[in-house]
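Inverse folding, one chain.
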């Protein structure tokens, strides 16, 4: 009987693992749709939103640090920053101690607009988190951190195997 139970337990674990992976894929799709709708409202491309998020979370950043975090070629990033600066989303400021250095920072007025657009999702997340205890939230946060690390590692491995043309 023990082998049947362990077989049942193994099958249940596989089902749960598949369900988690499917849920993460659906979450990625839903967040992509949300970002696409928000981007359309404020006339920003997906990559622009990604860069804005990195600047908001880690900025001010030098353009090279932003390119590295976004995994973008510096020339590509220059075009993105030109669009973002031209539309009033960011500013490129000279560093007083090194006049050659530049830092990119988000402008508060436009950042408030982003916060407003994401407020529905943020309120929903607050409600969801309120339904869990601290220990459960710690497990969820750990799972998401580890999943993010796995995604980063997979991305880095794929990028390392790319040819200079960008094709494997």
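Residues assigned per position:
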């Amino acid at each position: 009987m023990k082998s049947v139970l362990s077989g049942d337990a193994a099958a249940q674990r596989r089902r749960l693992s598949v369900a988690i992976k499917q849920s993460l894929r659906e979450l990625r799709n839903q967040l992509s749709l949300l970002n696409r709708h928000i981007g359309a409202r404020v006339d920003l491309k997906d990559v622009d939103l990604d860069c804005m998020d990195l600047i908001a979370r880690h900025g001010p950043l030098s353009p090279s640090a932003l390119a590295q975090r976004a995994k973008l070629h510096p020339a590509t990033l220059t075009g993105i920053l030109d669009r973002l600066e031209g539309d009033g989303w960011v500013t490129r400021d000279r560093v007083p101690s090194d006049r050659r250095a530049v830092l990119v920072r988000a402008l508060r007025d436009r950042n408030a607009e982003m916060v407003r657009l994401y407020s529905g999702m943020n309120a929903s997340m607050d409600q969801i988190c309120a339904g869990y205890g601290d220990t459960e939230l710690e497990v969820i946060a750990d799972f998401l951190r580890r999943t993010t690390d796995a995604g980063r590692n997979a991305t880095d491995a794929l990028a390392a195997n790319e040819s200079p043309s960008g094709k494997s």
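Helices lie at 2-42, 46-58, 63-70, 74-86, 108-130, 134-160. The longest helix spans residues 2-42.
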